[in-house]
Specification:
Chain B: One of its GO terms (biological process) is protein modification by small protein removal. The structure holds 2 protein chains of 2 kinds. By secondary structure, chain A is mainly α. Chain A is 54% helix and 5% strand. Chain B is built from 6 helices and 6 strands. The longest helix of chain B has 13 residues, at 82-94. Classes of the chains: A mainly alpha, B alpha+beta.
Chain lengths: 491, 169
């Protein structure tokens, strides 16, 4: 900063003559859009400065508002007065000539605009209803199925019912679909048709039909995952299975609903839901709606979760524990995404990040598109990941799992299937270690849970071994450990 | 000629979007201690302004889904009137702070808060906030997650975005 104190005290106030005496300093003038360096005498007045600026920025002097160090520079001031020196930055706002305001302040209309407007729209409105979200919910993987299945489907049915593809294929398709929508019976009838079933079992054909739909194409552009999914024959097959069986479909919907409502109860989860909805579902819905008029079947296309349950039966498994077993692998999965081994046959339902059926965990953990979509979802909302991690026993579970692979197999907190398959177990453990980063605790569980062990002891649980096991299983939670010890396990 | 020089208080609202998880998990996961994952917003003229994946957004103070701020830092006062400030924000929102330019590490809410703070008061926001991305990236875990994190947009819900039209709130 060139500080030349010896300049003549000329041109201080109210002097508009341009005598460029004194040293020239270079001041950066920054607008929201760009910035310029302006050379001006250091003794210049603000007015002179503005002249220069108006020339450079091609704006009228009246429109210029100069701000420095939180103060608005008024015409009568001098640069010196405000301490503007060489190399410093002055902010400029060019008023868009709404009011012919003076360069500065004094528009007292300000103030009390407090609280005005700005809808802090509460928020819930958009999230629609969890159930709706639920039905199509799942990030990327599920929703695409929506217009997807029925689209191709409609096409199919029109084909089969009408006997052949006519020149007016599209129209027929439309008609078919609207009829279909209004009459659910029809749907099942059509499904029964062997021709349809044949076609349905041919993933390639299905895929082509689906892709042929221009709306699908649009969607595919926007969400590349959709095309991934379409390219995965396994997934297609599952989805078709799903579409075939309305009962299973219902179950699926319920699953999703449930999972999503679990999701909701996590802080931040609600936002994730809403996000999911607005980012993914809305375009889906509108796309679908155009096709179907009214979209009662949006859920049908639902889900890639086909393989999780025995087909054609109701779900008999206990409701998944949102905070239980699944977490380590979920989280693990999200870091280890770049699909490794493991077949993708049973895909965790992506809209079900915490309620995942443990059976699917081991198998489909890494390579399933579901997992990848989960990753995507997590990447869209880091808060979600944080919150998943915030599940009560998360950290301790991770730690103990990372330390001791045996523990992992014994530990019901980890997926049963992961326990069975050593390769996956190893993988999981590696991931956990990676997670634990450079800072894994080297304490044995015993030392770690010292305090809790004492507590349990004091309460009368004298079997130290059992206590330890219980503590490990519950990640150090004394209350839960007690429950375990007493023989009543949380589902 | 010295019209009233009203000055307005400028505050920085700091939120920990990890809700405490970062403080607990960071030593485990990253190997360094982070007290929080900071999201900041500038509060002036009775409104809160921040930048996120949706662009520049405003709402009533504390009105986003993040709830109440973890801490409130006083940045000083400014003479900039609301009118001028809105113009300024509109320009920013059209040029350098559009929603699609959001990048978690390089061009985020804190970048915005910093810039606005300097505009309003001449001072910057505390360093520990702006240094956060660099800190995270300096860990192996941060590096590993980088591709993932690159695609994250943080946009706390509950506000109105600037569309670049002055006065459209």
């Amino acid at each position: 900063m060139a500080d030349n104190g010896g300049a003549d005290p000329v041109n201080n106030n109210n002097d508009t003559t341009v005598g460029l005496e004194g040293t020239i300093i270079k001041v950066t003038v920054k607008t929201p859009k760009d910035k310029e360096e302006i050379a001006i005498s250091e003794d210049a007045s603000v007015t002179q400065f503005k002249e220069e600026i108006s020339r450079r920025f091609k704006a009228k002097q009246d429109q210029l508002v100069l701000i420095f160090a939180g103060k608005i520079l008024k015409d009568g001031d001098s640069l010196n007065q405000h301490g503007i020196k060489d190399g410093l930055t002055v902010h400029l706002v060019i008023k868009t000539a709404h009011k012919a305001g003076d360069g500065a302040s004094s528009s007292s209309s300000v103030t009390t605009q407090v609280g005005s407007s700005s809808g802090n729209s509460s928020g819930p409105s958009s999230a629609a209803h969890p159930s709706t979200v639920g039905s199509t919910g799942g990030p990327a993987s599920a929703p695409p199925q929506t217009p997807n299945i029925l689209t191709g489907f409609g096409g199919l049915s029109s084909l089969s019912s009408m006997g052949m593809g006519s020149a007016n294929f599209m129209e027929l398709q439309q008609q078919m679909q609207s009829q279909l929508m209004s009459n659910p019976e029809m749907l099942s009838q059509i499904m029964e048709n062997p021709l349809v079933q044949n076609m349905m079992s041919n993933p390639d054909l299905m895929r082509q039909m689906i892709v042929a739909n221009p709306q699908m194409q649009q969607l595919m552009e926007r969400n590349p995952e959709i095309s991934h999914m379409l390219n995965n024959p396994e997934l297609m097959r599952q989805t078709m299975e799903l579409a075939r069986n309305p009962a299973m479909m219902q179950e699926m919907m319920r699953n999703q609903d449930r999972a999503l409502s679990n999701l909701e109860s996590i802080p931040g989860g609600y936002n994730a839901l809403r996000r999911m909805y607005t980012d993914i579902q809305e375009p889906m819905f509108s796309a679908a709606r155009d096709q179907f008029g009214n979209n009662p079947f949006s859920a049908l296309g639902g889900n890639s979760d086909g393989g999780v349950q025995p087909s054609r039966t109701e779900n008999r498994e206990p409701l998944p524990n949102p905070w239980g077993s699944t977490n380590p692998s979920e989280v693990g999965g999200s870091t280890g995404t770049t699909g490794s081994s493991a077949t993708g046959s049973t895909t965790p339902n992506v809209s079900n990040p915490l309620g995942v059926n443990s059976a699917s965990l081991g198998n489909g953990m890494f390579s399933s598109p579901g997992m990848q979509s989960l990753m995507q979802q997590i990447s869209e909302n880091p808060q979600l990941m944080q919150n998943m991690l915030s599940a009560p026993y998360m950290r301790s579970i991770m730690q103990s799992l990372a330390q001791n692979p045996d523990m992992a197999s014994q530990n019901p907190a980890s997926s049963p299937s992961a326990g069975e398959n050593p390769a996956q177990q190893l993988m999981m453990q590696q991931m956990l270690q990676m997670f634990a980063g450079g800072n894994s605790s080297s304490q044995t569980p015993e030392v770690q849970f010292q305090q809790q062990l004492e507590q349990l002891g004091a309460m009368g649980f004298i079997n130290r071994e059992a206590n330890l096991q219980a503590l490990i299983a519950t990640g150090g939670d004394v209350n839960a450990a007690i429950e375990r010890l007493l023989g009543s396990q949380p589902s | 000629m010295d019209p009233n020089n009203t000055s307005y208080a400028v505050k920085l609202y700091v939120y920990d979007i990890s809700k405490g998880m970062a403080r607990q998990l960071s030593p485990l996961m990253l190997g360094i201690q982070l007290d929080g994952i900071w999201h900041t917003a500038i509060v002036v003229h009775g409104e809160e302004f921040f930048y996120g994946g949706d662009g520049i957004t405003n709402c009533r103070p504390g009105g986003t889904s993040l709830g109440h701020p973890n801490s409130i830092i006083d940045l000083g006062t400014t003479e900039v009137t609301e009118e001028i400030f809105m113009e300024y924000l509109s320009s920013l929102g059209e040029s350098t702070y559009r929603g699609n330019q959001y990048h978690l590490f390089e061009w985020n809410c804190n970048t915005f808060s910093n810039e606005v703070a300097q505009f309003l008061t001449g001072s910057k926001i505390p360093g520990h906030i702006t240094d956060l991305p660099a800190e995270v990236l300096s860990t192996p875990f941060g590096q590993a997650l980088r591709p993932l994190l690159d695609s994250i947009n943080i946009a706390p819900q509950g506000g109105n975005t600037f569309n670049g039209h002055y006065g459209q709130r």
